[in-house]
Amino acid sequence: TEDGPNDPIYAYSIITVDASPAVSGIHHRMPAVLDGDEAVSRWLDYENVPLSEAVDLIKPLDALDHFPVSSCVNNSRNKSLECMMKIEIKPPSERKGTLFNYFTKTTKVKNESSNGDSAENNVKRELDSSESPPDKKKIKVELE
C-alpha cells in the first residue's frame, strides 16, 4: 500500500551533547540522557515548557555504562546477544597478531656498512608514552 499525503511519518533523532567525563575517553560526544521521569515529562510537554528550560534538561550525565564487547559488533548483520556481552581484555603480553605487538617485536633489518658489506642488526621497537600525552605517542627505535 502507498502512503497518502496526510499519513504521519514516523521518525526519530538522536540529540547529542558534549561527553561526560566517564565517556570522554571514548568519544567527544554522547547521546543526551534525560534524568528521570520528571525530565522526560517536561521534555515531552513542549506546549507548556519553554525551549530554554527544555534545553537545560539535556546535559552530559554519567548515566551510561560502557565495557569491552566482542568484535562481532563490527558487522551490522550480527544481531545476537554476543554483541552485548562483556568480554575480558587480555594483557598486552598475551595479545597475538595485533598492532600493539608490532611495536614490541624484535625484527632483523639489513644495514649497509660503510665498506659496502651487508650487516644484520636487531631493531627493537617499543611504544613510549611516558613523556607524551595519550593521544600523541612516540616510537623509540634502538639498535641492539
Explain the overall architecture.
The chain has a three-stranded antiparallel beta sheet with strand order 3-4-5, with no helix packed on it. β3 (106-112) and β4 (118-128) form a beta hairpin. Helix content is 13%, strand content 21%. The chain has three helices and five strands, in the order ββαααβββ. The longest helix is centred in the first third of the chain and has 8 residues, at 37-44. It is an alpha+beta fold and 144 residues long. The model is unreliable at 118-138 (pLDDT under 50).
Distance between the termini: 74 Å
Structural class: alpha+beta
Strands, total number:
5
Please give the share of residues in helix.
10-25%
Radius of gyration: 26 Å
Q: Show unreliable segments.
A: 118-138
List keywords for this structure.
single chain; alpha+beta; three-stranded antiparallel beta sheet
Secondary structure layout:
Elements: E1 16-18, E2 29-31, H1 37-44, H2 51-57, H3 99-102, E3 106-112, E4 118-128, E5 138-143
Antiparallel strand pairs: 1-2, 3-4, 4-5
Short account of what is shown:
By secondary structure, this protein is of the alpha+beta class.
